[in-house]
Amino acid sequence: MKKVALYISVGILFLMMLQSCQMEYDAFGYPDQRIMHGDSMIWKEAGYDDSHWPYYIDSTAEGIYWVRFDFELPEDLPHYEYPAIKIVSIGSYDAYWDGTYIGKSGQIATETQEEEIGPYWSFFVLDKEVAQPGRHVLSLRSHISDKNLFQHAYFVMDDVYSLTRTPLQITKYMFLIGGGILIAAFYFFMLFITQRKDYASLLLSIICLVILTIFFLEYVKLFYAYPYPFQRARLHWIGYLHLFLTYAVPYTFTLLFDFPFKKYLFLVLAIVVIWLENKYHFSFDYIAKQHNMIMWIFSILIVLYAVYKRQKTALVILSGCILALIVLKTSKYVKIPYVSAYDVGLFMSFIVLILSILVALTIIRRHERKAFEASLVLSERLKTELLKKNIKPHFIMNTLTSLIDWVEDSPKDGVKFIHALAAEFEVLNEMADLSLVPIEQEIKLCKSHLEVMAFRKEIDYDLKVYDIDYNEFIPPAIFHTVIENGITHGLPLDNRKIDFSIRFERTHESKRYSIHCGSKIRQISGAYEQVREGTGNKYIKSRLQESFPDRWAFTSNAVEDGWLTQIEIKEA
Amino acid sequence: MKILIVEDEARILKRLQRMIQEIFSGELDLLLTADSLESGLQKMKNASIDLLFLDLNLNGLDGFQILEEVVAESFHTIIVSAYKDRAIEAFEYGVLDFVPKPFDIDRLTKACKRIKIDQKGADHLKFLSVKKAGKRQLIAIDEVLYIQGAGIYSEIYLRNGRKEIHNKSLDALGVLLPSYFERIHKSYLCSMKEADHLMVEPGSKYSLKLKDNKVLPIGRTRYKDISKKWFT
After folding, report:
1. How is domain B127-230 classified at the CATH fold level?
2. Distance CA B198, CA B209 (A)
């Protein structure tokens, strides 16, 4: 059902994308430029032959240079009521249309005056008469003061209204989606706030914000005519943010899924990224695409591993990743005016990814809720089990039978027996509602139980404790259960004695209790052997899991001088 | 009388020992004790006992596994257990009695007396456990047509025409079987559910015809009672 919802929303996004492409698009633009160092007012003329000019020159910050666009306005060009051109240029310039000055951007530096930096793009409205079909020349007398900037210039011609409005018409959809991403960022952040240590959510929140920032940086050029040097800074930032995503997205997946080869994978990723950066650092668009591709490849590798290991929701994320890649790769077949179809595809692919993660998180939350409910049920069951321990017929009836016999035989000892029994009941009752009890109380329980059992079995039981840290807590009746097992399965030594000992050891990362039962082990013939995994051990394991989820170890095995049970609890 | 007590609780074992000595006093030839199943089984093999007192939960083991085995033996078994809720199950296997813990001497005496008096059990017996080629096998009591005594053991004749051997004597089985099993002859116990009609032949020879046409003899002294009890 959730997958269906995901696909429907992706479908709607796709439709929106296509709808934005259906917009009327009858602009003319992007003819080739020719460029020349130097300064001559002849170069503004339409009649000047610039065929020997190069298309591109390396260093432009050495004085005045001219850029010329020699182009043919086609016969089928729509009839523009108010023809206008949008010139996009790094560099300040004076613009000439067929030799006629039409305006300027910034102020070119003169001997007496510093350059006044112009905006990255400007609109120039033309007369209807000069924008007729046929050959035209747009010349820009340009200058860049900043040596770090590289020249580039292009122009688009359209009716002034569509020239100014169409980009905003298109980007409005993108900003709608941007709002969605912002909400997702907020949602992930709240998940992190309510569930600290959930670093995947924090990272997802940051990823959403980064995507949103790339989004904003990509489209800011359509509605804000920033000073042209910012263009380069903007591209740098977009590059860095893409680089961040290249690491962050696969890393998030390693948090969502268990991935054992994390170090190696990110080492390879680092090598590839450094190599790319070295080689293509200034090819902004190219490197962004490459970073993005690498991000997908590494992410899909991690998710594929998770699918292979049958990890929860891996399939949802994998289908999200694949769908996102399809969206990204098909975007180049869609033509969108004024904006790069690749960028649109890129954002769409991120949306698909975020949606699939949201679906996955919903599924995970549901599993967690179920697990939580199950743990509540388990806790209740363990509580009952603890209470039942001493009212099980085997315990109570045998105890009462022995007790009757003691009372009949030696009323004085009978009374002692009753006191021992009362003590055990009392401790057990104190523990009944707790999931962790002070170690001292647990030892008290064990001692009173041994006292009761000594009356019943007429065996001399002894319990010694070593290095116990009385500030520690453990689940109730854990040692008690181990000792019960020892009594049941151990044969007393020849002096009718069984010695128990509880030893505590602490290392820097774990605590260990060793409970030793010094007895002969009762041999059980094959025919009557039952699995040692009795209800007692199950109870211990359930209790440990309840209080120390997945960070405990329980071993119980015969040793030379009896039976040794070890409980290890790793530090959280 | 040779008796074995299997009980892992030292105090309870002593109590049983004391009380059994008191109940049987002079009749007691031998009283063995064991505190585990292992040694219990060993002692069972070595001494041919007449009566076994068995705790069903020994050292964490479920005694029902062993129960199936001991009821196939020639001796009677009395269960002494804390698990009162499993009494009926025990009776289904064919134990003489089930003494719940805690118990006193009166309850124990009552259980012991059942071995002497031909007093029908509360119709709980559902299976007869027989040993066949060393393996235990349970026979549903409804499958049994009649049982013929053969000295220290018995031959059980089944509905499917087969015959099984039980280690208990006819007398011992008589104590355990449900009330619709009638001792029609000193060598025969018959399920009266299978009886069709009585036949009197010349020379005061009485017999019982079963539904499957098999004819069993009826003891001369028993005829009157049987006729009165089952055919009027």
Report:
1. OB fold (Dihydrolipoamide Acetyltransferase, E2P) (2.40.50)
2. 6
For residues A274 and A248, membership in a common domain is answered with yes
Per the CB < 8 Å rule, is A401 touching B104?
A: no
Say how many C-beta atoms besides its own lie within 10 A of residue A354's C-beta: 22
Residues (pLDDT < 50) of chain B are none
A128: CATH: 2.60.120.260
- Give just the sign of the alpha carbon dihedral A470, A472, A473, A479: negative
Query: A460, A521, A528: which to substitute to probe chain B, counting the most B Cβ within 10 Å?
Result: A528
A406/B11 touch (CB, cutoff 8 Å), yes or no: yes
Residue type, B71: V
Q: Is A375 a domain residue?
A: no
Mean pLDDT of A276-303: 84
CB of B68 within 8 Å of a chain A CB? The answer is no
Residue type, A482: V
Whether residue A326 is predicted with pLDDT greater than 70 in this model: the reply is: yes
pLDDT digits (tens, 9 = 90+) for A349-403: 888 888 888 888 888 888 888 988 888 888 888 888 887 877 788 889 999 999 9
Q: Rounded to two decimals, what is the model's pTM?
A: 0.60
Asked if residue A363 belongs to a domain, the reply is yes
Q: How many structural domains is chain A composed of?
A: 3
Give the pair of three-digit tokens for residue B174: 């008589």
In chain A, whose CA is at the least distance from the CA of B66? Answer: A528
Residues B12, A398: C-beta atoms closer than 8 Å: yes
The chain A residue lying nearest B9, using CA atoms, is: A457
Which tokens is A177 given? 């989606």
Q: Is the pLDDT of residue A80 over 70?
A: yes
Would an 8 Å CB–CB cutoff place A457 in contact with chain B? Answer: yes
pLDDT grade for A529, boundaries at 50, 70 and 90? very low
**Sign of the CA dihedral with A256 first, then A260, A265, and A266 last:** positive
Q: Domain boundary at A96, A123, A150, which?
A: A150
- Cβ contact B102–A457 (<8 Å): no
Residues of A in contact with B56 (CB under 8 A): none
Nearest CA to CA, how far is B61 from chain A (Å)?
A: 7
Q: Do B12 and A405 touch (CB under 8 A)?
A: yes
The yes/no answer on whether domain B2-113 falls in CATH 3.40.50.2300 is: yes
Partner B contacted by A402 (CB < 8 A): yes
Return the residue of B nearest to A399 by Cα.
B102
Residue A18 domain-assigned? yes
Domain boundary (A338, A369, A400) is at: A369
Question: Domain span at residue A255?
Answer: 2-23+165-369
Verify that A186 and A286 share a domain, yes or no: yes
Query: C-alpha A228: how far from its chain's center?
Result: 36
CB atoms within 10 A of CB B86: 20
Q: Is B203 buried (19+), middle (13-18) or exposed (0-12) by CB count in 10 A?
A: exposed
Nearest chain A Cα distance for residue B78, angstroms? 17
In chain B, domain spans: 2-113, 127-230
Cβ within 8 Å, pair B11-A522: no
Same domain, yes or no, for A213 and A328?
yes
A442 located within any domain: yes
Regarding whether A540 and A479 lie in a shared domain, the answer is yes
